[in-house]
Structures are given as C-alpha cells and as structure tokens.
Amino acid sequence: MSGTDVGEELGARAAQARALALLRIRSRALAVAILPAAVAVVLFAADAQGHLAGPAWDAVRWTVLGVAVVVLLVTVLVAVSVARARPAMSPTVPVSEEGAPDLYRLVRDLADRLDVPAPSAVALTPDCDSWLEDRTHRALRKGPGAALRKGPGAALRKGPGASLPKGPEAPAEAADTAPVLVIGSPFLWWMRVAELRAVLAPVVAGTGPSAHPDIATARRFVRGLDAAIADAAAPGRGPVRGAPLAFAGWVARLLLRACRGHAAEME
User: What was the pLDDT predicted at 145?
Assistant: First the structure.
C-alpha cells in the first residue's frame, strides 16, 4: 500500500469519526427531547403499581406529562422545519452528457481509476473552483436526471465505507445518492485534458467518503440545520408562521454551533 493510499484511508476514517460525532450530537438532542416523556412514563407506571401515591405525586405526574407533550410538539416542529427547509445551492448550469460526452467520459474514467462512485451529474460554475455538491434533498432533485448513470462508474463500488447496492434499480439508486460534480468553467477554457484530469482527480475522489452512510447522514443533518436557519431568517412571513419558524431557527442555530467544529473537520 502506497503512502497516498494510507493517507486517503486515514482521511476517510477521520471524516467518519467526525460524522459519528455529529450524529451523536443529534442523538443527544433527541434524548433530551424525549426525556420528559420517559420520566412521565416512569411516574405513571409507578402509580399503576401503587407507588408514589398521593395528591402531590399526582400533581407532579400531570405536570411532567404536560411538559412532555409540549416538548414533543416542539421537537416535531423543529424536525419538520429542518426536513422541509430547502438547502442552499450554488448557482450552476447543468451539463448533459449529450452536450459534453468527452467531459463525462473523463469523469467516469477518473472514478474508475480511483475506485469511487461516479458523480451523479456535472454542472458548471463561473468560479475558478471545483467541488462536490450534495443535491439529494427532495427539493433539489428536480430537473435533468443523473447523466452518469450509464456506463462504468455509475454504481457504487466497493471501497472504504461503500458497498455495492443490490437489485435491478441499484445503479440508478447509487447514482441518485452520489453528489454533483461542479466544475469551474475557466478550467475548461484554459486547461488541457491532462491538466483538467489533475485538477478534478482529488475532487472526484471525494465521492468515496461521500458514499459512506454515516458521512452522508451527517452532511444532510448539518445542511438541514443551515437551511432551517436561513428559512427562519427569510423576510415576509407573518407572525403566525414566523414565530414557530423563528423558534425552530433558534434551536437549529444552537445545534449548528455545537456541530461547527466537527463539520469543518469532516469536510
């Protein structure tokens, strides 16, 4: 195993560790939300068995039950706000395989050589940069489909943290979960093919860790929090709808502040 392979494996493991840390933060937040309900269940179970009887304990039981109901309703509100918020998407122009077959062939060849999933599609940006963008959110999955489904590299390959999907729909499902490769259009104007391959290779290699379920789930969690904050800050909402969204945005901001360090290290 070469030094490059060792470095990539260590990087993937570090990203997975950070993703697990993010998922633990989400689990702790959920545990805090269901704690009053768990306490209420214990109190009512004790009353059913003849323990903790008396007017004082009855008042405690019903108070805790009321708090549990309120907390669960708030939790559902925040969860729905995070799930329905539309993640921010960079302004890009989609490129179909029919319009740029050589570019798609180059990207697929890179994915094959690196033994990683091929990106689901290619898009162009005016920036002098290239990156992978997750567009698996249902609000972002409209428009041109994944053009890289055809040919080698479309389905997820075996690699660090990835497995081959099974079934007749496996290639399409794998392509749908892969991120979109965003390429800076100046690179296409200025660079030769060999130079473009060198620039895109480390970007395409990122689809390998992106295919890991823990990393993908952690990214969706962080992007959902960020989208909920942006949704809460959007102007033009009345008090009836604005107040719940503002509260959901405040909770999302607290969670995102706790996740910021791990999210930066994961990326």
Answer: 41
Same domain? 149 vs 252:
no
Q: Do 141 and 246 belong together in one domain? A: no
55-84 vs 239-266: helix axis angle to the nearest 10? 70
Q: Are residues 57 and 165 in the same domain?
A: no
Same domain, yes or no, for 116 and 182? yes
**Global pTM?**
0.70
Task: Say if residue 158 is in the same domain as residue 185.
Answer: yes
pLDDT tens track for 41-85: 999 999 888 888 888 989 999 999 999 999 999 999 999 888 888
| Long-range contacts from 100-103, C-beta under 8 angstroms, 24+ separation | 103/183, 103/188
Torsion of CA 197, 201, 207, 212, to 10 degrees: 150
- Identity at 40, one-letter amino acid code: A
Alpha-helix residue ranges (DSSP H) falling in 49-166? 55-84, 101-114
- Please answer whether residues 211 and 163 qualify as being in contact, where contact means their C-beta atoms are separated by less than 8 angstroms: no
Measured from the Cβ of residue 176, the count of other Cβ atoms closer than 10 Å reads 15
Q: Which residues contact 71 (CB under 8 A, 6 or more apart)?
A: 33, 36, 37
Give per-residue pLDDT as tens, 108-131.
999 999 888 899 899 999 888 888
- Residue 162 structural domain: 93-211
Together in a domain, 114 and 206: yes
Domain count, the chain: 2
Q: What is the DSSP letter of 118?
A: P
